Amino acid sequence: SSAATASHSPSAAGLPASCSASASLCTRSLDRKTLLLKHRQTLQLQPSDRDWVRHQLQRGCVHVFDRHMASTYLRPVLCTLDTTAGEVAACLLQLGQLHGETTRRLEAEEKPLQIQNDYLFQLGFGELWRVQEEGMDSEIGCLIRFYAGKPHSTGSSERIQLSGMYNVRKGKMQLPVNRWTRRQVILCGTCLIVSSVKDSLTGKMHVLPLIGGKVEEVKKHQHCLAFSSSGPQSQTYYICFDTFTEYLRWLRQVSKVASQRISSVDLSCCSLEHLPANLFYSQDLTHLNLKQNFLRQNPSLPAARGLNELQRFTKLKSLNLSNNHLGDFPLAVCSIPTLAELNVSCNALRSVPAAVGVMHNLQTFLLDGNFLQSLPAELENMKQLSYLGLSFNEFTDIPEVLEKLTAVDKLCMSGNCMETLRLQALRKMPHIKHVDLRLNIIRKLIADEVDFLQHVTQLDLRDNKLGDLDAMIFNNIEVLHCERNQLVTLDICGYFLKALYASSNELVQLDVYPVPNYLSYMDVSRNRLENVPEWVCESRKLEVLDIGHNQICELPARLFCNSSLRKLLAGHNQLARLPERLERTSVEVLDVQHNQLLELPPNLLMKADSLRFLNASANKLESLPPATLSEETNSILQELYLTNNSLTDKCVPLLTGHPHLKILHMAYNRLQSFPASKMAKLEELEEIDLSGNKLKAIPTTIMNCRRVHTVIAHSNCIEVFPEVMQLPEIKCVDLSCNELSEVTLPENLPPKLQELDLTGNPRLVLDHKTLELLNNIRCFKIDQPSTGDASGAPAVWSHGYTEASGVKNKLCVAALSVNNFCDNREALYGVFDGDRNVEVPYLLQCTMSDILAEELQKTKNEEEYMVNTFIVMQRKLGTAGQKLGGAAVLCHIKHDPVDPGGSFTLTSANVGKCQTVLCRNGKPLPLSRSYIMSCEEELKRIKQHKAIITEDGKVNGVTESTRILGYTFLHPSVMPRPHVQSVLLTPQDEFFILGSKGLWDSLSVEEAVEAVRNVPDALAAAKKLCTLAQSYGCHDSISAVVVQLSVTEDSFCCCELSASGAVPPPSPGIFPPSVNMVIKDRPSDGLGVPSSSSGMASEISSELSTSEMSSEVGSTASDEPPPGALSENSPAYPSEQRCMLHPVCLSNSFQRQLSSATFSSAFSDNGLDSDDEEPIEGVFTNGSRVEVEVDIHCSRAKEKEKQQHLLQVPAEASDEGIVISANEDEPGLPRKADFSAVGTIGRRRANGSVAPQERSHNVIEVATDAPLRKPGGYFAAPAQPDPDDQFIIPPELEEEVKEIMKHHQEQQQQQQPPPPPQLQPQLPRHYQLDQLPDYYDTPL
């Protein structure tokens, strides 16, 4: 009757970016195919259907895709939690749903809505009503989808078989006997099958084995191929195809088969429910891959096509049935006598039948990822079995049957439930050499006898619960892994020890006896060791020694005398000095960063002539040792990192002793100059970082360094633009936070230049030609022009951010910063890290702010709206989120909704390794959590879902984070649900940092906070963090956002607030709601907006629109303002007592706030008039788009004041002017035009952060220095009121506004009202209120 299939992994997607100021969601898909057909082929739920669903929580909607147009046509089907697949199928003829990445048939009694709801609850949604709403969204199909019938997939169907009726000819082309005939031709498995008669269902089939054969083009005939088998009995068939597409498809598939050396067929991930009948023609098949299908021993299927028929493959050696959800062991495989390799991993098996004992030839038996607790004794009959995989099952002890499997030399039992390791059991298995017991819960080893266990040579006990480990009993041990336990002491036998891995424990004592003469690798980093054992110097083959992140004060005096030592990692200790005995040293890599070194050994660089890499960053070095005492030098040093020391100019001449230097980092030292003659000698230099010094110039002799591709010199005092643009290989130049005033460029930019950062240079002036040239660079950063001072209280927060690309110059991170988020009372910051992919961070950056704005309309609970934002983002990633993923951290500052006059709340949410830390009282307060395998609850959850954790600690070998956005094919092991933490901001909170994985892998939270605590500028602080991370060894992409806080005691507002709600305290440039305005043509004079002649249009940010950030990507935010936000009773008179956060503001006066509005001009495409020599202040351009920094806000007044003074417009209204649109969906909102506001604003610094401003009542200052233009120009505001200037009123407000205007005119005729007494001292005497527009005349 019915069919059904289900998937928790996307196949068609949508990442919406919506248009703002609309309650309805207008989504846009990134999947082009979906985009073209979506609106045409999607049946939308009708409002009546939605009402029916919402009436009861037991109801819902599933979206069903057409089987042949899976990604384009879907139909909503209303049902309840009790509706079965059979009932839905009866309506739709057939039903299907995708699961994982493959499609499975739903049983008739399964309940689609219940399956969908369970999936959404698993993702992290908490409320049934929310799950119900998500289910009604058609985009849910990119996470879980249903199909009417089995979906048709060209890719997988090609792999199962190709078939068709074609013209066929057998034998040699020269023979006239063989004529062309129309025949059924099938390619399935490794054979070409041709029917002997026209009716392919009767008569025998001709089979042509293709392995080792060949396929060739036949040029005499169009679309013709010749297929030949191999061997002395070779046969040839000529086939003419009807179309070129079919010809190519057959050529491609047959070429793959013919090129194989073994008879192998791969039918993995094909959604197979049974075996293709034609597969059995391939009788010589030796390797068959059926991984990730839905094969069953289903009696209702024809017997010839079930798993029972696998025994027909009499030569089969390798069979992969993993991930088939079998539930029971497939007994049929026991009857395949030739089988040597069998994989039945991840099939939810609870037992292995005794019948497996008959598989005498089996050599590899994989049972990983099941629910096995025991093995049958009959397994001992598998005499040839050499590998038995039992990882990630439910074993609590080592199965006894392994004693009899003498050919098995490796015990693979990682991820089980063993709490104790009984060495007695291992003693009975002398054939076991390699023991893998990682990711169990072993707390102790129980040794019943004192005899040595001589047969174990490799022991892996990673990620267990061991407190101490006496491994002396393993007297022949060669490799020991015991990372991430809780070891305090470790004793090992050293006779044959080759490698020791013991990082991330609590070790204070390490004993190896006797001296390990074969030891070549030793990692004891991240412990509590206070000294290095003396035997390390005697270990004659030790090449790599990692003792980083301990508490070591001194290294053994003879350590460098060990002639075999190549790599010493001793960073993050407490070393005051290094050993000075350097005879015969062969060290190539030396890392001693983060110690207490005052100097390096004076003969280090002369004696260590093999040294290629030296990192001595974060010490207290004041000088460097010389590389040579003569003219000649033997130095081969290539990488030198000396960041964060106290080095002075005296050190620079010593660098010339290293002529092969390629990378030089000397940031954050005390350099005041870099002599030109010394720079000229570093001819092989490729990357130089001199940031955070006091350099006034970079020497012009950098021109001699022809290989330089990266110059980083931010946070100096550089006044002259260096000659870096002449370098042929230059890719990245960072000169931010300097004192540049101009830029000198060659006629043509360097061909490889990708990044130029000039932000934070307040005196920098670029002419139009230079700007136009620089805009061609892929990543060009410069300050937005300053918009001048305006009145307001000090800013509560300001930010700076930076991004740096990692390997292969790919920028796989992105940052989000919205200082005025959602009606200007909030802020939003984010950092996104895609690890190695660029797509996901970009999508997160473009979309997450809009989703959060929308979620804020649905709930005010911090955890709820943050969690829902991340889960909805999972859906919005669409197709990109199937195979790719990304870490994310979001920080949202908002006002306490319960107490409008109270403090600000900072809410942080993160997945992956992006994290936030808050500096409170100078101490770090982490607000994030990194969910990885070391989290006990995460490991337990992943084990339950039977995911395989590979040896590098990654889920199925893909990601080490168990909570991350994307990677939907790893559901339910990998989840998008974030960790959420909220704190109330206090005056003790100084700043907070958001950083990507690369930042936190290189810096501890304590160090990050300490590093930037005294950096006054947020941009410079972010830059410093990035530079430090790179000098400390980070090679990944890095992003850092630093948000400086200035929360005063007054944040806890003491105002008397009216009962109906009041205006919350402000953030930088924060204003209470005004009305959404679109300037169409001519503004009224008082509004201080562009004149009608300029031909400009701009949407002005307000309460009803979302953040300025979303202007490019649109916004999914609903425009319902929070309750009380539009209250008309907010006090606005100076006579009322106000706190610092609610300053008095002029009624009817406009305030100017920093935002970015895009203007398009009919007169010019470059922002310049023909007469203008210089670009206009406040205008910057990119190609044909002219951007002007402008945002106009108004101050709030009482209703009475509004009626008297607001709409001073003539009654004869034409149809031009300003459009005032209020929210049509909220009947409770005031319908009167409201131009009032009260708040503080800040001036944006050159680096994009916001700085406190002077208090001023002239809210829009007269910009006298900006060029004005005659009518037809840009910024001429009319000097006198123009009778044509007026408002365009939306129909629903028309009657109300007419009433106000009529009342206003009557009052004017009777008498001119005097200004309120509070306003008189603030205005020049000769200005009356009706002349206020002239007073605020401005070129903007």
UniProtKB/TrEMBL annotation:
Region (Disordered), start-end ranges: 1081-1133, 1296-1340
PPM-type phosphatase domain sequence ranges: 798-1045
Protein name: protein-serine/threonine phosphatase
One Pfam family hit: PP2C
Keyword Manganese (UniProt): yes
Keywords: Acetylation, Apoptosis, Cytoplasm, Hydrolase, Leucine-rich repeat, Manganese, Membrane, Metal-binding, Nucleus, Phosphoprotein, Protein phosphatase, Repeat
Enzyme class: hydrolase
Catalysed conversion reaction: O-phospho-L-seryl-[protein] + H2O = L-seryl-[protein] + phosphate; O-phospho-L-threonyl-[protein] + H2O = L-threonyl-[protein] + phosphate
BP GO annotations: apoptotic process
Cofactor list: Mn(2+)
A GO molecular-function descriptor: metal ion binding
GO annotations of cellular component type: cytoplasm; membrane; nucleus
Biased composition (Low complexity): 1091-1112
InterPro entries: Leu-rich_rpt, Leu-rich_rpt_typical-subtyp, LRR_dom_sf, LRR_domain-containing, PH-like_dom_sf, PH_domain, PPM-type-like_dom_sf, PPM-type_phosphatase-like_dom
Topology of the protein relative to the lipid bilayer: Peripheral membrane protein
Domain PH: 159-259
EC number(s) from the headed UniProt entry: 3.1.3.16
Domain of life: Eukaryota
The keyword Signal belongs to this UniProt entry's keyword annotation: no
Subcellular location: Cytoplasm; Membrane; Nucleus
